[in-house]
Specification:
Blueprint (H helix, E strand, L loop, with lengths): L4 E2 L2 E2 L1 E2 L6 H4 L2 H4 L1 H13 L3 E4 L5 E3 L10 E4 L5 H16 L5 H6 L1 H22 L2 H22 L17
Parallel strand pairs: 4-6
Antiparallel strand pairs: 1-2, 3-5, 5-6
Helix pairs in contact: 3-4, 4-6, 6-7
Length: 168
């Protein structure tokens, strides 16, 4: 999950675009929705960087509506765009909090990631893409474990262990 946290910044990272092979390029397959989302991001002064390795949304570290960023590769599916746009919409609905608020409330990070992954998983199911659905589920579980390992601490210190007795 490297790349989830960058100094002075938080990243919600979808890690991959498993529906790309099924859907193709968002700009071509869903031109109206692509245009609507990118126009809204531009209107809200979200900096979108194309050609990046990571797929992520990063809130402005100081809070506020300006300075938020989305990273996307050169080609991506509408599913990946919806996922990162969804993070922006969640951030907007929360009133553009400072990044520290997410660290203080790791359950918030967990809820936001879960919501976006469930939307993508539901979409993969609707498309009948079981491989992408499985990959998205695995990505979500890795992301959830990363969040738990990184942000949840036991009251007396140390990493949080959700399964201290090794039981499944």
């Amino acid at each position: 999950m490297g790349g989830f946290f960058v100094p002075n910044n938080i990243r919600f990272n979808s890690q991959a675009d498993p529906l790309f092979d099924t859907l193709g390029r968002a700009k071509i397959t869903h031109p109206e929705e692509y245009q609507s989302i990118t126009a809204d991001l531009q209107r809200n002064q979200v900096n979108v960087k194309y050609g990046e390795r990571a797929i992520s949304f990063s809130p402005n570290s100081g809070g506020g509506s300006i300075g938020n960023e989305i990273l996307l590769p050169e080609v991506f599916s509408i599913s990946a765009l919806r996922h990162e746009y969804g993070h922006f919409l969640d951030h907007q609905a929360l009133g553009y909090p400072r990044y520290i608020e997410y660290f203080k409330n790791p359950e918030l990070i967990m809820t936001i990631e879960r919501s976006q992954y469930l939307s993508e998983i539901r979409f993969a199911r609707e498309l009948g893409d079981t491989s992408a659905r499985r990959t998205l589920t695995e990505n979500y579980l890795r992301e959830r474990n990363y969040i738990v390992d990184t942000y949840y601490q036991r009251p007396y210190g140390g990493k949080y262990n959700p399964n201290p007795f090794g039981r499944e």
